[in-house]
Amino acid sequence: MKVFSITNNKGGTGKTTTTLNLGAALAHKGFKVLLIDLDAQCNLSIALGVKNNTSHIGELLVGESTFEQTLIKKEKMDILPSSRLLLSFEYRINMEPDSGYFLQEQLAGKDYDYVLIDCPPSLGSLTVNALVASDYFIVPIQGENFAYVGLDEILQLCAKIRKRMNPNIQLGGILLNKFDMRTKFSQMIYTKLSENSDIKLYKSNIRQDVSLMECTAFAQSIFEYAPESRGASDYMVLCEEVLSQ
Ligand SMILES: Nc1ncnc2c1ncn2[C@@H]1O[C@H](COP(=O)(O)OP(=O)(O)OP(=O)(O)O)[C@@H](O)[C@H]1O
Ligand SMILES: [Mg+2]
Q1: In what order do the strands lie in the sheet with 78-80?
Q2: Distances in Å between the alpha carbon of 148 and those of 30, 141, 192?
Q3: Ligand 1 within 6 A of CB of 78
Q4: Nearest residue CA, atom 10 of ligand 1?
Q5: Cα(88) to centroid(ligand 2), Å
Q6: Which Pfam families does the UniProt entry name for this protein (predicted)?
Q7: pLDDT of the chain along its 245 residues, tens only?
Q8: How many whole angstroms separate alpha carbon 5 and alpha carbon 176?
């Protein structure tokens, strides 16, 4: 089992889109995939068509529900859904000793090939739980001017977690999203990032594609909603790169 956190403390960079569609690409290839929604906005749960779930990831983490009670099985992927109430659970998680290990404990011994965790846009205890449970973290950024502002914070948090809590965690890669390699400006950003030896950049980028925005409204992955789209093609190429890591 390989566990990936999709994380960035900056909002709206493509974490949820990447969790959903990279997960769907892996499932498409026949792997058994679990997605985890760790964000109180519930965007991933909504994108997977989860409604009226009785239990959620916050309850699982504090031990008020079991893995089986919380899990929702979909046709192609399983999901541990979130809830608007997750923030109050985050507060409770903070009060407990060793609270950073709760998610790792829940995933131990589970029978999945890939687990992808959609993190909230913050670096609080939920993101710490995700990183402690992960082998890799992926950081989607938008290829605009200040895209890498904030990268230091995630990299520093991970360095601390690697040292103290989870020696296995490593950067899978920085993923350029809404990116257009044809523009000079994008090429400049790409060159600048690839020259930085502290970071690892995925060779594959995700281009701007309105289908990626639309598919979530129909509770579908890009492979179901628009299999011929740029988005589907880009996420499949990314999937190949992730599999070769
Ligand atoms: N490559 C893309 N092309 C077009 N639209 C995109 C692309 N990637 C993401 N989007 C859209 O941009 C918005 C933000 O993306 P997303 O929700 O994945 O970001 P996020 O990092 O999860 O945000 P948050 O920090 O709020 O959780 C969404 O409306 C999504 O549909
Ligand atoms: Mg999100």
Answers
A1: 72-73, 78-80, 33-37, 114-118, 2-6, 136-142, 170-177
A2: 34, 7, 10
A3: no
A4: 213
A5: 18
A6: AAA_31
A7: 999 999 999 999 999 999 999 999 999 999 999 999 999 999 999 999 998 888 999 999 999 999 999 999 998 999 999 999 999 999 999 999 899 999 999 999 999 999 999 999 999 999 999 999 999 999 999 877 666 677 889 999 999 999 999 999 999 999 999 988 888 888 888 888 888 888 899 999 999 999 999 999 999 999 999 999 999 999 999 999 999 98
A8: 16
Atom 2, ligand 1: which residue's CA is nearest? Answer: 208
List the Cα angle 17/130/79 in 5-degree steps: 55
* From 5, 9, 16, 236, mutation site for ligand 1 pocket: most ligand atoms within 8 A of C-beta: 16
- Sort strands 78-80 and 114-118 into parallel, antiparallel or unpaired: unpaired
The domain in which residue 232 lies consists of 2-243
140 Cα: distance to centroid of ligand 1 (angstroms): 10
CATH number at residue 134: 3.40.50.300
Domain count, the chain: 1
- Residue type, position 219, single letter: A
Rounded distance from Cα 18 to ligand 2 centre (Å)? 9
**Does the CB atom of residue 21 touch ligand 1 within 6 A?**
no
- The atom of ligand 1 lying closest to the CA of 231 is 1
